[in-house]
Amino acid sequence: xxxxxxxxxxxxxxxxxxxxxxGLPIELVRRGPVPxxxxxxxxxxxxxxxxxxxxxxxKANRPxxxxxxxxxxxxxxxxxxxxWQQKLQKSEGPVVWDYHVIFxxxxxxxxxxxxxxxxxxxxxxxxxxxKEAIRAxxxxxxxxxxxxxxxxxxxxxxxxxxxxxxxLDENGQWRSKPPPYPCIRTEETDDNIQDFIxxxxxxxxxxxxxxxEDFTHKFSQPLLS
Length: 225
Known about the structure:
Layout: E1 3-5, H1 26-31, H2 47-61, E2 69-75, E3 81-83, E4 95-97, E5 100-107, E6 110-114, E7 124-125, H3 126-134, E8 147-152, H4 153-159, H5 193-197, E9 208-211, H6 212-219
Antiparallel strand pairs: 1-4, 2-5, 2-8, 3-4, 5-6, 6-7, 8-9
Helix pairs in contact: 2-4
């Protein structure tokens, strides 16, 4: 996973700044299927493995919640997706990732996002994450519109593999220090991360690829009539 800062992605200038964000009640953090962020093993720039480790934790400690959890890959054909409220963010503008991966948990009608790279709460209410971190595609030039590959946690644990070669530079050096544990692999392969990053569905990869509108509809709390 790599990023670019300060890139011009907006369709037109905007003066909108960040809104204030309050933390979630401690009861919600305790009720969630994963520990607080400080107690979760995670390595910078390896978001796909960080999320896999969260899924592994749920399977071992809260197996009844595993089918309510998802790995969500965010990317597009151009491998350029703006996301706001990131810890790398140097200004009001977004960080432009080639891809990003978040953990998503559904609890009844509500959904929550766990993003180690975000300044937002961990977990963050889905609607808040959309408003603060994703924002509307109408603000962006078309080449920066985001797509979302949603993979249920059991499938992600079974099918995801990475030999981490995408994190090597042209000289074979690590762009960022890898996690200390062995590479994640399956019985079939030692690397298929590009199939998860790809937004060419249904011919490639696992799960379902959604645009922002469909992603919002799938996980937003239904409005009361």
